[in-house]
Amino acid sequence: MQRKKISFAILSVILGLGTLLSGCGGNEEVTSTTSGNSQGQSGQFESKMKISMFNQGTFNAAAPIPPRDEDIQRQMLEKEMNIDLDMVIPQAGQATTKLNTLIAGGDIPDLIFLKSRADLAQYYDQGVLADLTPYLDQFPELQKRFGSDSWEAMSYQGKTIGVPGYDNVNGISRSFFIRNDWLKKLNLKVPTTPDELFEVMKAFTEKDPDGNGKNDTYGFIGGMNKEGNLQTYGFDSLMWMFGVNPPSAIEVKDNEPIFLFIDPKMKEALAYINKMMTAKVVDPDWVTMNSPDLLDQKMFKGKVGFMIRDARRLEPDYQQKMKEISGEVPEWIVIPPMKGPYGDQIVERKSFQGNSWAISAKADKDKIIRILSMLNYLFTDEEAYPNFAYGIKGIHWDVVDGKIKNKTSELSKEMKEKYLWVDHYRMPRRGDDAEYFSFQNPKTAEAFKNNQQYVGPTLPGNLLTPDPSDTLDADRQRFINESLVKFMTGKEPLSNWDNFLQTLDTKFDMQKYKETAIQQFKEAGLIK
Which UniProt keywords are present, listed alphabetically (predicted)? Predict the structure, then answer.
């Protein structure tokens, strides 16, 4: 299959191996030889086993691994699973080199954290990783811990070759912020539709909401990264009101791929943004906003009434920055996303489950069961959860008034630095766990919680891997991004939309891209 050919070509270059490593095991029925069940119960394993873990999933690669007698989390894992855990933390930026060196030398770690699905597929193709399909039915709680889209990302060639690494965090970084003090002054209501939002932005621009008698306020500001991509900088959130987004936003409906960046609804989204540009409700500095820090500075200066920013801008440190820069703390509030003309109400799409835990193909059945039992314990044991998600009881967290309280934010700088190594074990923290973040402003936690209902499912387009034979891929993506910007700014009239689609077909071979997508979706079982 095409993706398998891609993986062989790429990884052969990376590893420089002359021959393939041993292949993965078959799909025969597997039964555990342990004395108990495989659900992470204490005392279930009679014999001690050594497990080596390549943990590039740590949240702090610079933190040294403490001695075993000080490493409480490690002690918990070793006692619960009856193992000796040998954990390797690769230095930042050196993980791939380190792992490939181990693999080339035949010293494959038993448990490997991988940061991308491409890596997972490539190493499996090389015979480095085991097929976990025969074992996972023994761990129903682990399967329920992650959503179906996360498990789909672990599927390759009809087999499950990994366990989701950790939850990605959604519903916080792309919050819909609006100046409530400006709404009150202009006697306006919180907008709920694109049309209402436009009228509010127009009023924020034209009706002097800050009362200084100057024409110096704007309804909105967004930006794009240095590569000219509109994603994550605000304009993409406006597009979601119409149910579309730039590449790689690809949906699958009725057994067909829907390329949202060229869908007819994208034309409507661009027309809406062009309407904003024409009405001059967008701060003209948007063309220079190519980093989150620059957008933050605009927020701190207090001259824009509506933005897409991280809900943590409600936290005290950021509120203080606003006061220092603008002389005031604006009454920013986080509101629900607008409900678009087709019923779409989206803060963002759930991040793709790229990271994973994989197990060495050299591991025998008993070792695979032991490792899966350890992951099951890590991710599903409620009593163990705060010890891994928050840190050490009595230091990072405690039980206050019958509830678990994360105390990390209260620690001194010295204490935080002393226990940096607890970041090696935080992977089980849930992506929607507000207590984990230890928010200091209740409004931040409220915004985070409310946003969760507007996080859409992951788009299947994230499953696609580039086709090396598609030499026009980079130029095609660049043309799409540049064209979208031209349409929304009016440099290219929307009457030329059909010409844009035709150019994609004739000059950039859009058909090849579509065929690659269909083939890979078929391999993933998303299209029959």
Answer: Cell membrane, Lipoprotein, Membrane, Palmitate, Signal
